[in-house]
Amino acid sequence: ARSVAATAFETFADYAAFEKALREANDEVDMRLLAFGLMPNHWHLVLWPRKEGDLSEYMRWLTNTHTRRWHLAHGTVGTGPLPSGR
User: For the CA atoms of 36, 58, 73, 78, what is the dihedral angle to 10 degrees?
Assistant: First the structure.
């Protein structure tokens, strides 16, 4: 069983996939990503939105994409959100 606190990034590939998703998120929403930090169970982003609504749209796309891809990579599709939540 997985620990609730250790689910966002389990392998190097998980970190690389999230960095790819960060790049792709900018294609979806024109966001200024100033800095980011990734820990095994969460991440921190310093973002500078260009217009109203960009922050929520960017985070929606990023978290949904990361969750879907994580489940696909770990064979847990259909089990709901990541155990550690947002």
Answer: 140
Integer CA distances (angstroms), 17 to 49, 53, 67, 72, in order: 23, 25, 11, 12
pTM of the entire predicted model: 0.77
Do 45 and 55 touch, CB atoms closer than 8 A?
A: no
- Answer yes or no: is pLDDT of 85 > 80: no
Q: Please write down the HEC assignment for all residues of the chain.
A: CCCCCCCCCCCHHHHHHHHHHHHHHHHHCCCEEEEEEEECCEEEEEEECCCCCHHHHHHHHHHHHHHHHHHHHHCCCCCCCCCCCC
Phi, then psi, of 18 in degrees rounded to 5: -70, -40
